[in-house]
Amino acid sequence: xxxxxxxxxxxxRLDGSAADIHGEAAALRALGPAARVELPxxxxxxxxxxxxxxxxxxxxxxxxKDAHQHWPAFLNGDLPADWPLRxxxxxxxxxxAYGPDHRxxxxxxxxxxxxxxxRALAPWIEETTAALLDGLAKAAAAAPGGxxxxxxxxxxxxxxxxxxxxxxxxxxxxxxFQTINDxxxxxxxxxxxxxANSAEAARLLGDLLALKTxxxxxxxxxxxxxxxxxxxxxxRELADSIWMVLGxxxxxxxxxxxxxxxxxxxxxxxxxxxxxxxxxxDQVVEETLRHQAPxxxxxxxxxTEDLHDEPTRLTFARGxxxxxxxxxxxxxxxxxxxxxxxxxxxxxxxREHLAFSHGPTYCLGAELARLEGRVALSALFxxxxxxxxxxxxxxxxxxxxxxxxxxxxxxxxxxGNPHS
Length: 420
Ligand code: HEM
Prior knowledge:
The chain is α+β, with helices and mostly antiparallel strands. It has one domain: CATH 1.10.630.10. It is 51% helix and 10% strand. The chain has 20 helices and eleven strands. The chain starts with a helix and ends in a 7-residue tail after the last strand.
């Protein structure tokens, strides 16, 4: 007999390779404020594309993110054993907790992200950015045709260095943590590779926790170790929270920088406005977040009881899986007009996006990511005014992820093309 999941086929099958996130978002929007979808692995869910409905669900006290308590498909063993998205609901962190557990786990992290602490990071981020731009220039000088991958050398490197400093990873551990972090969400590993990764992840984390226990510092890892010692979080939550913060601060902000650079390079009139100071870098950041939500969709939420939404007249059953489609929400024509698909840093509604979520799960790193965006973009374009893409925009390959919206690589020339 087939499992209930397989019998209950969904009407819109999402493309696991995420080749066209916005084309898919438009098709889902046409199906209504929320559409029934099938996630990779044949798992049914709703994809929520309407901004009003998304806000109401994000703030609703009867909507949980804890699959361990509130997702029957997870609890009953209905999911395929090798379900590629399992890690997103299985981990035990603030990102997958509900009610008092969510408040308890969020409370441990809040002090790291106060406005004062984020502002204090600005000089460090500026210095690190300048050093990375030096490195980029060196890499370009050594590369055939002067073509370098801006994603590797800059867009993802700055967020990684920032989040590892915040967490308190010693320099010697940075690269090994990055290798594991880069593979942990990869869905095409063999069972042996996945097992080897888990063993390596546990070993690295063990080393880090031992270090922070013996030599605590003013960093996230030390604060979490201390909270664990005081009984505020268990061992699994401690381990998962460290990986979660590293992941949450890295690929997300890399995608923001990635899309901002690509959009500006392909809209030179807008780049001119930003470089001339006629439009602030903060507006560039907000319009990028709206136009290319770095977290395209998030896995996942579950009503703890049947939930009727009167404005849309939709009813979600207890335990239905809900995916908030932040990419679709950012381009809603009802909010942003008929040209919602266009990148326009002068747009009056640029700040009206939900790219950092809303309500109790509002992103803790939002101000840090905004700061990194402003510093990185202004420094990059002032240092390399002739920066250009080395391939056509259509040749850039999207990341194969329903969740992370970015490119695999951004080949650029720093000094423009000498032959053009
Ligand atoms: C442009 C960059 C970023 C974007 C677009 C982003 C987006 C998001 C979104 C959409 C959520 C909520 C997910 C959901 O429940 O649906 C979230 C939560 C979170 N983010 Fe970010 N994020 C970014 C950067 C960061 C950074 C730099 C950090 C930390 C270093 C961070 C840490 C967190 C944490 C801890 C949460 C969980 C909050 C909670 O559940 O209470 N994020 N982020």
